[in-house]
Amino acid sequence: MTTFSTTRQFAAAPATVFAAIKDAERLARWWGPSGFSNRFEVFEFQAGGKWIFSMIGPDGTTYPNESVFSIIESDRQVVIQHVCPPHFQLTITLEPSATGTLLRWDQAFADANVAQAVRHIVEPANEQNLDRLSVELKLT
Asked: Which residues pair with 11 in a beta bridge?
């Protein structure tokens, strides 16, 4: 297994960060790398709930995605199973800190070869995703 991990400090309480994840409209605004937009078809934010959506790249290319929310702990953690290729588990953990929230983003690929093949995309994309979340949090 190969896991790509990053952390980010946000000057917002865990409940505020969690609110930007659980709200489909807000999540659609910040999810994905820079220049991408999202069209959600199914968003069942509960344990076992489906999340089916398309990410639209800056060039207009549509990337279908299907995931399942396997664990949701309010204001604390969201675990997402990406059930279409490439298969991975994303764990977003929110920890209270002196200045707000420490977010940990762990994207684990079961197949190390797949992980290595997408590393050049995943590492910068994850950082861009959190940059976009930071912007979203400033809107609240």
From this structure: none
**Cβ(25)–Cβ(3) under 8 Å?**
no
Query: Under a CB-based contact definition with an 8 Å cutoff, are residues 81 and 89 in contact?
Result: yes
135: exposed, middle or buried (C-beta count within 10 Å: 0-12, 13-18, 19+)?
exposed
Pair of tokens at residue 82: 């990406």
Looking at this protein, which amino acid is placed at residue 48? G
Q: Mean pLDDT across the stretch 62-82?
A: 98
CA 4 to chain centre: 13
Residue 86: asked if its preceding bond is cis (omega within 30°), the reply is: yes
Q: Where are the alpha helices (DSSP H) in the chain?
A: 14-22, 24-30, 112-138
**pTM of the predicted protein model:** 0.96
Closest CA to 89 of 103, 71, 64: 71
**Average pLDDT, integer, range 70-79:** 98
